[in-house]
């Protein structure tokens, strides 16, 4: 190849690089930024930040904690949906816990999804003063799961249990498993570090109602881990506690909740929801609690 052709080709490539850099790297971002400054768009482009007393306290698009310095829920505030994003509501670690319906057996230092649900349900029930029983959960707030050990049939089902272990209840935690016996065999608590996968894993539904008092969004994290909303059912569950903490009637709190309840998008997308941050901020304005402020 002649040097003149070589130089001409590279000069063309360099010109294309410069033109595209100006258009895509400078002009387009500048155009998008200018459009974002238009009335009605600026707030959304800036992150939908909510302020209180002149300082930012959060975003209406991202959930957050309403706890004290020790991580205990503040009783005067509605609590958010659980989060699996980083240490909680971390936009840089947005995502789910990647645990599915088959995650029912706890591992060392890693509770199963079932136990996480059971533990959250028990904690919320204690805080709100309701019955926290859930299907497939023990009274102690772990997954009610047995390992049934014994000879199996052609389909892999145990035909005659020889030993039964409550796999999510280590003997350090309890000496009395949630179930006394299973098919005539005494249920044992699990020994630490022992693998019981040799047995048939059997979840036990128990006598809990199909519709627990603690709703699903109170015990499960959203897909993003950043959900700023809770269901109306979870909001209703918290009304009595918040009313006591703020020394007002429950109906007064319900009126504020109703103002922050949104319907389905376009009438059919999603579910009705309540924005927790905006709700707590209005409660602070209307029924303040001395020395406490919203924003976690």
From TrEMBL:
Its localization reads: Cell membrane
Naming one, the record's GO cellular component terms include: plasma membrane
Q: Which residues cross the membrane?
A: none
Give membrane topology per the record.
Single-pass membrane protein
Biological process terms from the Gene Ontology for this record are: potassium ion transport
Q: What HAMAP family does the annotation carry? A: KdpC
Which family, according to the similarity comment? Belongs to the KdpC family.
Protein name in the entry: Potassium-transporting ATPase KdpC subunit
Its source organism is Mycobacterium alsense
């Amino acid at each position: 190849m002649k040097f003149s052709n070589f130089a001409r080709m590279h000069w063309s490539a360099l010109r294309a690089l410069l033109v595209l850099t100006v258009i895509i790297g400078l002009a387009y971002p500048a155009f998008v930024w200018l459009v974002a400054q238009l009335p009605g768009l600026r707030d959304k482009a800036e992150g939908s930040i909510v302020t209180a007393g002149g300082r930012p306290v959060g975003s209406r698009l991202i959930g957050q904690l309403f706890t004290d310095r020790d991580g205990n829920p503040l009783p005067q505030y509605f609590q958010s949906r659980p989060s699996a994003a980083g240490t909680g509501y971390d936009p840089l670690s947005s995502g789910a816990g990647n645990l599915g319906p088959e995650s029912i057996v706890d591992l060392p230092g890693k509770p199963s999804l079932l136990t996480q649900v059971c533990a959250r349900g028990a904690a919320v029930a204690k805080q709100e003063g309701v019955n926290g029983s859930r299907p497939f959960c023990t009274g102690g707030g772990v997954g009610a799961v047995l390992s049934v050990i014994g000879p199996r049939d052609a389909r892999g089902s145990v035909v005659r249990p020889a030993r039964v272990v409550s796999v999510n209840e280590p003997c350090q935690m309890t000496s009395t498993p949630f179930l006394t016996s299973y098919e005539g065999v005494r249920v044992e608590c699990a020994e630490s570090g022992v693998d019981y996968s040799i047995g048939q894993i059997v979840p036990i539904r128990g006598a809990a109602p199909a519709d627990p008092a603690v709703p699903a969004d109170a015990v499960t994290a959203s897909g993003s881990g950043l959900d700023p909303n809770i269901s109306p059912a979870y909001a209703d569950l918290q009304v009595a506690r918040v009313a006591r903490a703020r020394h007002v009637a429950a109906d007064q709190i319900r009126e504020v909740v109703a103002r922050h309840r949104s319907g389905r998008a376009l009438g059919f997308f999603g579910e009705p929801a309540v924005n927790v941050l905006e709700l707590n901020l209005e409660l602070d304005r209307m029924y303040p609690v001395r020395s406490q402020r919203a924003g976690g």
